[in-house]
Amino acid sequence: MSSKTPVLTDKAPKPLPGIYSQAIIANGVVYCSGAVGLDPATGQLVDGDVKARTVRDQETPIDPIQSANTSTIQQHQCIKNLTHILEEAGTNIDKVVKVNVFLSNMDDFADMNSVYVQYWGDVKPCRT
């Protein structure tokens, strides 16, 4: 039987205790739980749009004119959270092979894509 190692970092929103892990390492593969645009310090969705919630660096303020859409700000934060979890697991975002994207509003699809393409190199992960 293979072993499972939970991954936990304070740099991403905490999982619900006893319910799920931020990620699990099993047989050398990292499986991440869903990530949302929550600020790990406050536990609240970051202000702004889908782009910002997908990944926001707390040290680098977002230009409110560029990020007037709430879904964009959330998208940036989401990818930032995922990046921290992957780093805690000993890997990085460049090694991701599959991404599932869930949007509450399909009107955010183009904004989400404009943020998404910033985080992977020439070989993008498979995506649903």
UniProtKB/TrEMBL annotation:
One of its GO terms (cellular component) is mitochondrion. GO terms for molecular function: deaminase activity. It comes from the Eukaryota. Gene3D superfamilies: RutC-like. InterPro entries: RutC-like_sf (IPR035959), YjgF/YER057c/UK114 (IPR006175). This is Uncharacterized protein. It comes from Penicillium egyptiacum.
